[in-house]
């Protein structure tokens, strides 16, 4: 049976920053409020104890509490959420920008843990592990033939800095088992995927999220690009769901002049906190372009809004997600956390870009998908903006609030990709898995090739497009790929480049036919 592709587009949405707001009893005297609140807490605690002590069957009361917390938060706003202990560990690592491990990118291929790529200069690379190796044992723990979930595999491979683990691997290219002793180390989780030079003295920096290390990564990339003589910069925030507001503010400061307003927040008491640029900006005169799409959210929107409202940057792409809520985290002893919405943020002109959420969380997140149905992703005229939420920048440019950042230069989805279902599929992990499996059949076919030789080989070989069609058909997806052959081949070639040569080579391929990039470069000619 074929899978209906109507809902295939995966709207990545924001990096859901999260929270809890307990309602106040505004009309009751202070003493009555105190008694009512404490009665509610006592009532909940007594109920949990009653269930724990008297219920006829054994019950995990922790799970009941978690459900209660989830239910409370779901009544507040879409970004106030509870994060269970297991998930919180990975969230913390992602936002911190590193973890302790052995430095491999892997996935379960059939019944084995297959290494897609080792982290450059990481513990595994230094020990001699290679792409295509299968990890059979971690110490004495058998990993193959068990189809272990990813979190279980991570727990086997992680540990303390300097701790040692022995891996038994099968190297297919040599048809033999090998043993490696590896010392775990700190592995960076990059939030800046690429910082590279494009044509016409234009630099390009891709930010995938705003973590603790994002500004330092960005500044390092910008410094190198300035040394190469860039006169303009493209900041790619597409599919960036946000993260730490402070990192976005620090990046905005690089482009704005001293004392220009970057962002301000307002809490429920009406208290306002304003953040201004300093005199430390290192790129205050060159041209700046910011790429956004329907999945750019939160901190991405703060950066885009700050540059747009100060007439400093040109925003290119499609209307952003529309998340203008600020969260604060509260940690619990069991390792879980709640992130609570504590304020709203506003762009320098006074815009709130938070889209409505009164119809509930399901409708809120579905709104991003609805843009496909209404035609907004194909035509700027289909973007719904309210005249009552119209603002003006210092130079008189009209900007809008009420639901995301509306770009200055619109680039429709159909121009960018040709077929939205295929486009969204190509941005999932399916291409990476396909390429790994093709390489696994015969890595020697690419041995010794320089990058340009690799490009010629891929251009003249139709094999991988045909193989990808078969691969997708086996998944049950009813997609017609022939009309988007050039697009599919570009993503396949880019993924081969990533796995064979490294991350920058992926972007070297993928950006050459990128509609938003070309819109900018062609306008500058």
From TrEMBL:
Segments crossing the lipid bilayer: 7-26
InterPro entries per record: ClpP/crotonase-like_dom_sf (IPR029045), PDZ (IPR001478), PDZ_sf (IPR036034), Peptidase_S41A (IPR004447), Tail-specific_protease (IPR005151)
Domain of life (superkingdom): Bacteria
GO biological process: proteolysis; signal transduction
Keyword Protease found: yes
Keywords from the UniProt entry: Hydrolase, Membrane, Protease, Serine protease, Transmembrane, Transmembrane helix
GO molecular function: endopeptidase activity; serine-type peptidase activity
UniProt similarity note: Belongs to the peptidase S41A family.
Protein name, as recorded: S41 family peptidase
Species per Swiss-Prot/TrEMBL record: Flavobacterium flavipigmentatum
């Amino acid at each position: 049976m074929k899978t209906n592709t109507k809902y295939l587009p995966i709207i990545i949405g924001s990096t859901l920053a999260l929270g809890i707001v307990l309602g106040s009893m505004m009309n009751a005297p202070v003493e009555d409020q105190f008694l009512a609140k404490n009665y509610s807490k006592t009532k909940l605690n007594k109920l949990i104890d009653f269930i724990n002590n008297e219920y006829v069957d054994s019950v995990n009361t922790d799970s009941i509490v978690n459900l209660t917390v989830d239910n409370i938060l779901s009544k507040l706003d879409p970004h106030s959420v509870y994060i269970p202990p297991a998930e919180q560990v990975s969230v913390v690592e992602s936002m911190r920008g590193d973890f302790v491990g052995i430095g491999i990118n892997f996935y379960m291929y059939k019944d084995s843990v297959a290494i897609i790529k080792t982290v450059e200069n990481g513990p595994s690379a230094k020990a001699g592990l290679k792409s295509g190796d299968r990890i059979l044992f971690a110490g004495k723990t058998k990993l193959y033939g068990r189809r272990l979930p990813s979190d279980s595999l991570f727990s086997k491979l992680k540990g303390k800095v300097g701790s040692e683990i022995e891996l038994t691997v099968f190297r297919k290219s040599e048809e033999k088992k090998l043993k490696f002793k590896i010392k775990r180390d700190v592995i960076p989780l990059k939030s800046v995927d690429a910082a590279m030079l494009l044509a016409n003295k234009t630099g390009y920096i891709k930010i995938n999220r705003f973590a603790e290390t994002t500004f330092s990564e960005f500044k390092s990339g910008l410094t190198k690009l300035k040394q190469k003589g860039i006169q303009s910069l493209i900041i790619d925030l597409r599919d960036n769901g946000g993260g730490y507001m402070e990192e976005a503010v620090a990046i905005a400061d690089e482009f704005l002049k001293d004392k220009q307003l970057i962002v301000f927040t307002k809490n429920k008491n009406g208290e306002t906190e304003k953040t201004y640029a300093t005199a430390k900006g290192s790129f205050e005169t060159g041209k700046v372009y910011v790429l956004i799409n329907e999945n750019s959210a939160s901190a991405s929107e703060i950066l885009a809004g700050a540059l747009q409202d100060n007439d400093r940057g040109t925003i290119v792409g499609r209307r952003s997600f529309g998340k203008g809520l600020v969260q604060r985290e509260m940690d619990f002893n069991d390792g879980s956390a709640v992130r609570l919405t504590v304020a709203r943020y506003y762009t320098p002109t006074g815009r709130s870009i938070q889209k409505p959420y009164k119809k509930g969380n399901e409708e809120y997140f579905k709104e991003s998908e609805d843009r496909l149905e209404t035609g907004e992703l194909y035509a700027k005229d289909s973007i719904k903006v309210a005249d009552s939420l119209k603002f003006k920048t210092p130079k008189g440019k009209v900007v809008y609030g009420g639901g995301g950042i509306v770009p200055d230069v619109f680039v429709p989805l159909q121009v960018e990709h040709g077929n939205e279902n295929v486009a969204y599929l190509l941005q999932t992990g399916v291409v990476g898995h396909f390429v790994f499996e093709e390489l696994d059949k015969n890595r020697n076919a690419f041995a010794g090739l320089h990058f340009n030789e690799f490009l010629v080989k891929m251009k003249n070989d139709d094999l991988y497009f045909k193989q990808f069609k078969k691969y997708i058909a086996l998944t049950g997806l009813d997609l017609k790929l022939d009309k988007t052959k050039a697009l599919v081949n570009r993503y396949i070639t880019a993924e081969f480049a990533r796995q064979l040569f490294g991350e920058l080579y992926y972007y070297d391929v993928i950006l050459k036919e990128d509609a938003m990039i070309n819109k900018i470069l062609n306008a500058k000619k």
